[in-house]
Write a structure and sequence with these properties.
heterodimer, A: about 190 residues, alpha+beta, five-stranded antiparallel sheet, 5 strands, elongated, B: about 500 residues, mainly alpha, two-stranded antiparallel ribbon, about 75% helix
């Protein structure tokens, strides 16, 4: 039985190689589609010929681009700064994602510098899903939210403070950012950004 | 032939891409309708949004629940349309664009598997365009084969009913295996028509998908090469691992392996497992051409590892949507022997083969004159709008409107030799399936409950009340929010 299968496989291989060679010589093969509807199914030995070389070259260019994108996109995370933006990097269930964090956003008014920073009530300002993303420190989201606070009347600077406990229970150094509304510059005051 | 040509342009069993495309498209449609819509209420809440790409942020207006739901409904409709009409490049590229928009419009959707689904859709656009009738011939009318097919069709209808009953309890993985087992049993009962001569085909989409899956698995393994993961801390933190695997921990303790060491070994094992699975997928696309003991062994081991990993993920109760189901569909079609995939396909293509025969007869007996085309397009639009009315979700009408316009375009712009009626009928069937899937799932209840809850938290009581009241129509048994509604009414009454 196994011998028979091996023989059939060898025949198939030889036939497909012959067909491939034929298609190279006469570039008029079908576009990778089997026989038309209504006809009997194509037997294994009659697999459609490979596409003409010109079509293959175009397809290969697309394939290489697509694969390069898929390899480079996650690599960007590892070779670049890494950090907390793990999108497109296949880092599901990464240690960073499972850290337990709390955040506080504060703002300071231009006229009330002496009173010190006042806390922003995140629950009334944002959907809880965005608060969770802020806890995970997705830089684009944190920055956009801080800038949106600058558009409020009487706000001259916005602060973001994040405290986390790692999966092994260790307390991580706090991350502190400050946005100066006038200059639009974000400063990292503590921790890693 | 260059190595690149040999890898991406060689032949493989036609049943593999055919079956995967069908399974994947159904899963995608149900995923968008029954799962993703539930969280639509958060889109645009408080006027804040960040898209995945800065250029999209600049281009798109603030997403709203209606816009998001509409995009999801269209995605599902298009997925089922392709399912019914066959894998065609243009609709698949459109599906890729619409689905990608659904997750990329906001970072609220940060599921990496949604990004992965987009990659799969792009590969699918370059799959071979095989028809059910080409895979297996339709049994002659009145024969034993046809009778067996009708019995099988009844079994499938019963299975779909079972699927929805179990799905209602939210045990997706269990329903998947019930379905797999039942289909396997049905296929064992019904002999494949020509198991000796499997149809081979070419098309670079299928090997490209294999290579893409390999890249994903290898990167997920790399992501776990981290001190905390290897020490076992992270896996313990993931949901219910210590509870689910408590028996294993006890057993290991009996062997002198403490819990810490056990979790460390357990977590570390996942790294080579995922690397081997990646390698397995790279080779699997050539299994039908090359064969041999090594290939059989590698694919067999990869299949076992894939099932263990993804069923394990489901057992842990991870919040990953239907990711495991997509990955198991991949494992079934890439890693099982072609004879098994052929047999499954012979069973699953029965309705499609019947439909092909029916359409061919219809087209012969009643040619598609312009009047008939417009009438079918009108009927299709009526079904779409009827479904939108029954669905009772924001965005349903505009999604049906877009689908209806596409239907009229198909009816009026198709060439005289082309008959758009089967495609229009497919659109109507997709709309009916959309209504049925949404009606059978708790997704509307989730949508209104979550939206009401969000308004309530922010003190927007009138909006919260409206959503809770609407949600009551769809509340599953024992989940009613009547008390909360009364509380809000009393508060609002006092406020007045």
């Amino acid at each position: 039985m196994a011998k028979k299968r091996r023989k059939a496989r060898r025949t198939r291989q030889a036939q497909s190689q012959a067909l491939a060679a034929e298609a190279e010589a006469t570039p008029t093969g079908a576009k990778g589609e089997p026989s038309a509807i209504g006809q009997a199914p194509t037997p294994a030995s009659m697999a459609p010929p490979v596409a003409p070389p010109a079509n293959r070259r175009l397809a290969n260019a697309f394939i290489l681009l697509f694969l390069a994108y898929q390899v480079l996109m996650p690599l960007r995370y590892y070779l670049g700064e890494g950090g907390y933006d793990e999108r497109f990097s296949w880092r599901m269930f990464s240690t960073l994602r499972l850290q337990r964090c709390s955040i506080a956003v504060t703002e300071q008014g231009g006229d009330s510098q002496d009173l010190g920073p006042r806390p922003v009530d995140l629950k009334s300002e944002l959907h809880v899903a965005w608060i969770n993303i802020l806890k995970r420190y997705r830089p684009a989201v944190v920055e956009k939210f801080m800038r949106s606070r600058c558009r409020q009347a009487d706000v001259s600077s916005v602060g973001y403070l994040r405290n986390c406990v790692d999966t092994d229970g260790a307390t991580l150094p706090p991350l502190e950012l400050k946005l100066d509304c006038d200059s639009g510059r974000v400063q990292t005051l503590g921790g890693e950004s | 032939m260059s190595p690149l040509d040999r890898y991406f342009h060689s032949e493989y069993g036609a049943a593999r891409p055919y079956l995967f495309a069908k399974l994947f498209l159904v899963l995608l449609a149900l995923d968008t309708w029954m799962l993703m819509i539930g969280h639509a209420g958060r889109y645009g809440a408080t006027g804040f949004n960040v898209a995945h790409f800065a250029w999209l942020d600049a281009m798109l207006p603030l997403p709203t629940p209606g816009f998001y739901v509409g995009v999801l409904l269209l995605t599902g409709l298009l997925a089922l349309f392709v399912f019914f009409t066959g894998v065609r490049r243009l609709p698949l590229l459109l599906l890729f664009a619409v689905y990608t928009l659904s997750w990329s419009m906001s970072m609220l959707d940060s599921y990496q598997h949604h990004y992965f689904v987009s990659l799969i859709l792009l590969c699918l656009a370059f799959f071979p365009q095989t028809r059910a009738g080409e895979l297996h011939p339709r049994p002659t009318s009145g024969t034993e084969g046809e009778r067996a097919g009708h019995v099988y069709a009844l079994i499938v209808v019963a299975l779909v009913a079972v699927f929805f009953v179990i799905e209602k309890e939210g045990r997706v993985w269990r329903s998947f295996f019930v379905l797999c087992f039942a289909v396997a049993a049905a296929s064992a009962l019904r002999r494949a028509p020509r198991p000796d001569a499997p149809l081979l085909t070419r098309g670079f989409g299928f090997p490209l998908l294999g290579a893409s899956v390999a890249i994903v698995y290898i990167y997920t393994a790399i992501a776990k090469m981290d001190e905390n993961w290897v020490a076992g801390h992270t896996i313990v933190r993931i949901s219910s691992a210590p509870v689910v695997f408590a028996d294993f921990v006890t057993w290991a303790e009996g062997q002198g392996i403490g819990p810490e060491r056990f979790w460390s070994l357990f977590a570390t094992f996942v790294i080579p497992q995922e690397i081997l699975m990646g390698v397995g997928y790279l080779f699997a696309v050539h299994r039908d051409r090359v064969g041999g003991l090594f290939m059989e062994l590698l694919c067999g081991v990869t299949a076992v590892l894939a099932v263990a990993l993804h069923v394990g993920a489901e057992a842990l109760g991870l919040e990953i949507g239907w990711f495991s189901d997509y990955m198991l569909a991949l494992a079934c079609t890439f890693l099982l022997p072609l004879s098994a995939v052929e047999r499954l396909a012979s069973v699953l293509t029965w309705p499609a083969r019947l439909a092909e025969g029916f359409f061919a007869e219809w087209q012969r007996e009643s040619p598609a004159d312009p009047g008939a085309r417009v009438i079918v397009a009108l009927a299709s639009a009526a079904v779409l709008f009827g479904a939108a009315r029954l669905i009772d979700l924001p965005g349903a009408y505009w999604a049906s409107g877009v689908a209806s316009v596409a239907g009229f375009f198909m009816a009026l712009a198709s060439r005289p030799a082309q008959d758009p009626r089967p495609a229009l009928l497919s659109l109507s069937l997709a709309a009916i399936a959309m209504w049925a899937a949404i009606a059978m799932s708790p997704v509307r209840w989730e949508y209104y409950r979550f939206t009401g809850g969000d308004h309530y938290r922010r003190g927007e009581l009138q909006a919260a009340l409206e959503n809770y009241v609407k949600g009551e129509r769809y509340a599953p048994e024992g989940e009613s929010r009547r008390d909360k509604i009364e509380r809000i009414r009393r508060t609002l009454g006092r406020g007045d």
